[in-house]
Amino acid sequence: MKTIKTIAVAAALVAAGACLAAETVSGTGPRAAGEPTTATTATIASADPLPQSLGLVEFLSLVRSRHPVLRAMPLRQGMDRADVRTAGTWANPSIHYARKPDEKEWGIEQPVPVFGQVSMRTEAAKLAAATAQAERSVEAQDILNQAAQRFAELLVAQEKLSAKQQAMEHLNQAVKVVQGQVELGARSKYDGARVELQRAQLEAQLEQQQAETQAAQAALAELLVQPHWQPRAIGSLLPAKPVPAAADASFDRLWEQAAPQLPQLQAVHAKVLQAEQLISQQAREALPTPSIGVARVRNRPDGSSYNQVGISMELPLFDRKQGAVDRARLEYEQAMLEEQSAQQLARQRLQQALAQRNLLRKTLQSFESRGLTQLDPLRRMALDAYRLGQSSILEWLDAMESVAEHQQQYLDLTLRVWQAEWELQTAQGRLPLPPQ
Q1: Closest C-alpha to 7, from 311, 297, 302
Q2: 169 vs 175, 213, 323, 404, CA distance in Å?
Q3: Which helix (H) or strand (E) covers residue 105, if one does?
Q4: Radius of gyration of the chain from Cα atoms?
């Protein structure tokens, strides 16, 4: 009778476990009344109005909360937790019932992983989750880097548009001067026609720059899946003055500080740990898992009953997981090589980024000290020379075009310096990103 009660209790436990599994599959657990789901929260967040003017950090915060891939990352993290939970469960017991002419038999059988297979699987699943999380960090950084680059491009496009508009104002003033000279007879009608042609060309360039600015705005809106959003970037691309201690730091010191913070190195190291754990797991999986069974047999002729206890276990004669263990070792060696290669590439990237940043900073400082300060005086001198009859209309327009061209080159140079600064910070693993 005790055995019958034991079998009945075991069957009840199996049924209860099935109910719990069904509840787990249908939902992640009880939820308070009125509590929004993840999808509802994401929908509410995406419905918030977007600012029309914003800075870089504010835009990156919006990207982190609204980009489709980044919004889905918590779901992927939840999947990893579910995999860890699955790896830590035992196999379900099996019950059986058999009826023969003279007897009946019913019982239950449970696999028992006595050699620690479940703990090894759980640890492997945790390391796999850690590797996936590190890879998601790299993916998130790539998306945020792309967002920062697009923001900088919009900022430069706005500055170029402002420079074009200012050039148009100067040209309109020039047109009035030329028309006055023509009406007084001091200049020929050719000057008037030539300056009008120049204004038409500048108007076309202004419209083209407006189109490029709108395209840069659309590139930002694309990251947030907001096609009708037309943001205005706020900020400056001019680099901050370097801190003396940071400027004098040696490359080896910079690398020592950067290596532990780089997401790509953390990802490859997590992959090494996962591959190392896989070797131990496969070796442990080679050990057989015994199954313990309890049965109750009843004899019909004489009405006698007896209990039957048995154990079954696979004999690892032919398949001893040799191939799986060898493959795990090779994957570990491959992961080690990938980590070494990633470290070399990251070190080389930091070295190149540092050299590029220093070179472009010197170029920008030279341009600002030698060329940029001469633009306004050159514009005024060209206008005065034309008014006094000391230069022709072509010389005046050439001077104005040279000023506009140098302004565009300066803006392009500031963008390149900003990109070099950002690349250096990326190589050091210390980007000005908003907190998660």
Answers
A1: 297
A2: 10, 19, 77, 12
A3: strand 103-111
A4: 36
How far separated are the first and last CA of the chain, in Å rounded? Answer: 60
The answer to whether 172 touches 383, Cβ cutoff 8 Å, is: no
Among all chains, which residue has been given the structure tokens 């370097």? 242
What one-letter code names the amino acid at 87? A
Sequential pLDDT tens for the chain (436 residues): 444 344 343 334 333 343 333 333 334 343 443 444 444 444 444 457 899 999 999 999 999 999 999 999 999 999 999 999 999 999 999 999 998 888 888 999 999 998 889 999 999 999 999 999 999 999 999 999 999 999 999 999 999 999 999 888 888 887 887 888 777 776 778 888 888 888 898 999 999 999 999 999 999 999 999 999 999 999 988 766 554 444 456 788 889 889 999 999 999 999 999 999 999 999 988 888 999 999 998 887 777 888 889 999 888 888 888 899 999 999 999 999 999 999 999 999 999 999 999 999 999 988 888 767 677 777 778 777 777 667 777 787 778 888 888 888 899 999 999 999 999 999 998 876 655 5
Contacts of 118 (CB under 8 A, 6+ apart): 87, 88, 89, 90
Q: Are strands 103-111 and 94-99 parallel, antiparallel or unpaired?
A: antiparallel
Residue 295, strand partner residues: 107, 308
String of DSSP letters for 363-431: HHHHHHHHTGGGHHHHHHHHHHHHHTTSS-HHHHHHHHHHHHHHHHHHHHHHHHHHHHHHHHHHHHT--
H-helix or E-strand containing 298? Answer: strand 291-299
pTM over 0.70: yes
Nearest by Cα to 134 from 429, 384, 372, 345: 429
Rounded to 5°, angle at Cα 407 from 401 and 413: 135
Residue 401, token pair as written in the block: 């075009």
